[in-house]
């Protein structure tokens, strides 16, 4: 259905929520872009906190087309920083609430019903974008760490209760094959697009044709799957209704109280973006003029979901000596790009966004980084990752490297930090004993070629040593191994992408999780 006609949409949610999270949720709803839609709201108030009920009443004054149905809150629903605790009675109570909402949408003659859980925050474009997807059932993606130390996962799946890999009927898969397919599925979910899935929930737009075919959250008697969304999806599939997930505007899930600061950042970004759209951008935002050269250095970097890692501190350390920056955003789903633009404000910067991450075939990514960097007509290219920081004295000594005319390539030693203050040194971890190329004077006349390997291909073309080169005693701190969770994720990535260690060392991979590695304190 086109949004050019006045479509009627019911936005609805059963609500049993703490006031601080509920206030953020309601604020997010009011920030939704509406176009010419006829919007109504419906909330089933199952709250046991008077302030939460007051917030819903205040919302009615702001949005007169709001229906509130009161429920007797007799049940205990417990959540903490570890997880949310559901029992069978609560699940089917919520299922009944959702079916009441579907029935209300049918009675009102709605073109769409948008079911949104009350701990989600939505991008303003979400509703209009889901309608434009023109599918009978489509959800907007969000990501959650279901356990504090677990990997973030989306609320969609392909098979059964929560299997996140594709598998044909009758096809037999090994555990390794399942792991590879799960990795590919999750990478696809991080890429903006519209994808058919087998299960979804919590942020779901249902079109009227699906409504009238009989979709429902009620329990299917001969199915033991846990959760009302799974029964909804099985029923939809049995009715021949396809289900899709959109990944252009990921919602934010306030799953724990510790998520609230990031939730506030999410809302602040939305408001600031709306304010910028309402007035002409400043000269600092639109200027691409080359500023007076500091060192002639172009920072070249690949980033991917760096918001909660080292990116801000790393970029701040680079600011004093770079002339411009070229950054490949390899499919980030967080605020990585915002950080780059903010921290490097006033410095010419080009950001190239990959909708589909390329790191699983690194040589393609590094070639892209190189091609985009040389488009900026660099004099010197400083090629560093988002977790690599030059030692403090670099800012004072860099001019002596870039001012000379005899050497075109400088190599530095890189130290693998295992925490904030110590680097690792043992039989498998001694990268700092080797000098590697990081700073290159670009010579357009040289024909460059690459080491064609999917992993460990090098960040510069393979033949840069044909240029005059030298070593420097300046050092690089690499924080990519400094967090235990990062080490675990890297090991899993190597096991998935390089299970036979074709591009690395199986022994080194195995040593990543050594409990007592040999660490040496860093000295500036």
Give a written overview of the molecule:
- The protein has helices at about 20-30, 50-60, 90-110, 125-130, 175-190, 210-215, 230-240, 260-275, 285, 310-320, 335-345, 360-375, 395-405, 485-495, 505-510; strands at about 10-15, 40-45, 65-70, 80, 85, 110-115, 120, 135-145, 155, 195, 205, 245-255, 295-305, 325-330, 350-355, 380-385, 390, 410-415, 420-425, 435-440, 470-480, 520.
- By secondary structure, it is α/β, with parallel strands linked by helices.
- The strands form four sheets. Strands 1, 2, 3, 6, 7, 8, 9, 10, 11 and 12 form a ten-stranded mixed beta sheet that branches. Strands 15-14-13-16-20-18-21-17 form an eight-stranded mixed beta sheet, with helices on both faces. A two-stranded antiparallel sheet has the order 4-5.
Strand content: 15-25%
Question: Taking Cα atoms only, what radius of gyration do you get, to the nearest Å?
Answer: 26 Å
Task: Describe the largest sheet.
Answer: 10 strands, mixed
Low-confidence stretches: 279-293
CA-to-CA gap between the ends?
63 Å
List the helices and strands and how they pair.
Elements: E1 8-15, H1 19-30, E2 38-45, H2 50-62, E3 66-70, E4 78-79, E5 84-85, H3 88-108, E6 112-116, E7 120-121, H4 126-132, E8 137-144, E9 153-154, H5 175-189, E10 194-197, E11 203-207, H6 208-213, H7 228-238, E12 243-253, H8 260-277, H9 283-286, E13 297-303, H10 311-318, E14 324-330, H11 336-343, E15 349-354, H12 362-374, E16 380-383, E17 388-390, H13 394-403, E18 409-416, E19 422-424, E20 435-441, E21 469-478, H14 484-497, H15 506-511, E22 519-521
Parallel strand pairs: 1-2, 1-6, 2-3, 8-12, 13-14, 13-16, 14-15, 18-21
Antiparallel strand pairs: 4-5, 6-11, 7-12, 8-9, 8-11, 10-12, 16-20, 17-21, 18-20, 19-22
Helix pairs in contact: 1-2, 10-11
């Amino acid at each position: 259905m086109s949004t050019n006609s006045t479509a009627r949409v019911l936005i609805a949610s059963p609500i049993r929520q703490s006031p601080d999270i509920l206030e953020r949720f309601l604020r997010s709803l009011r920030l939704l872009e509406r176009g010419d839609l006829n919007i109504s709201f419906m909330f089933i108030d199952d709250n046991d906190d008077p302030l939460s009920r007051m917030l819903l009443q205040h919302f009615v004054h702001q949005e007169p087309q709001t229906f509130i149905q009161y429920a007797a809150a007799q049940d205990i629903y417990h959540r903490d920083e570890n997880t949310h605790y559901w029992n069978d009675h609560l699940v089917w109570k919520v299922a009944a609430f959702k079916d009441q909402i579907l029935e209300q949408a049918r009675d009102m003659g709605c073109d769409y019903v948008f079911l949104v859980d009350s701990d989600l925050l939505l991008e303003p474009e979400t509703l209009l974008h889901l309608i434009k997807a023109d599918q009978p059932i489509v959800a907007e993606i969000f990501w959650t760490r279901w356990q504090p130390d677990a990997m973030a996962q989306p609320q969609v799946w392909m098979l059964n209760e929560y299997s996140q890999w594709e598998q044909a009927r009758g096809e037999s898969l090994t555990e390794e094959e399942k792991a590879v397919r799960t990795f590919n599925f999750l990478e696809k979910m991080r890429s903006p697009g519209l994808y058919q899935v087998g299960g979804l929930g919590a942020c779901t737009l249902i079109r009227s044709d699906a409504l009238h075919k009989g979709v429902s959250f009620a329990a299917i008697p001969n199915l033991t799957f846990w959760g009302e969304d799974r029964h909804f999806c099985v029923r939809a599939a049995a009715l021949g209704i396809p289900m899709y997930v959109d990944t252009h505007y990921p919602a934010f899930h306030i799953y724990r109280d510790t998520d609230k600061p990031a939730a506030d950042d999410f809302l602040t970004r939305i408001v600031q973006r709306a304010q910028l759209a309402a007035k002409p951008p400043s000269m600092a935002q639109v200027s691409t003029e080359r500023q007076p050269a500091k060192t002639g250095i172009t920072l070249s970097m690949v980033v991917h979901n760096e918001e909660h890692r080292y990116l801000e501190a790393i970029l701040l350390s680079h600011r004093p000596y770079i002339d411009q920056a070229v950054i490949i955003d390899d499919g980030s789903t967080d605020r990585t790009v915002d950080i780059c633009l903010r921290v490097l404000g006033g410095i010419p910067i080009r950001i190239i966004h990959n909708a589909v991450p390329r790191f699983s075939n690194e040589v393609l990514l590094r070639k892209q980084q190189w091609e985009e960097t040389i488009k900026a007509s660099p004099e010197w290219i400083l090629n560093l990752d988002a977790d690599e920081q030059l030692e403090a004295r670099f800012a004072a000594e860099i001019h002596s490297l870039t001012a000379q005319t005899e050497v075109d390539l400088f190599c530095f030693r890189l130290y693998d930090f295992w925490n904030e203050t110590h680097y690792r040194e043992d039989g498998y971890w001694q990268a700092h004993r080797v000098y590697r190329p990081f700073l290159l004077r670009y010579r357009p006349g040289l024909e460059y070629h690459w080491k064609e390997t999917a992993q460990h291909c090098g960040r510069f073309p393979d033949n840069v040593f044909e240029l005059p080169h030298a070593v420097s005693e300046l050092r690089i701190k690499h924080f990519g191994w400094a967090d235990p969770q990062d080490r675990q994720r890297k090991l899993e990535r190597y096991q998935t992408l390089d299970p036979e260690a074709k591009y690395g060392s199986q022994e080194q991979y195995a040593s990543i999780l050594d409990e007592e590695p040999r660490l040496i304190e860093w000295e500036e």
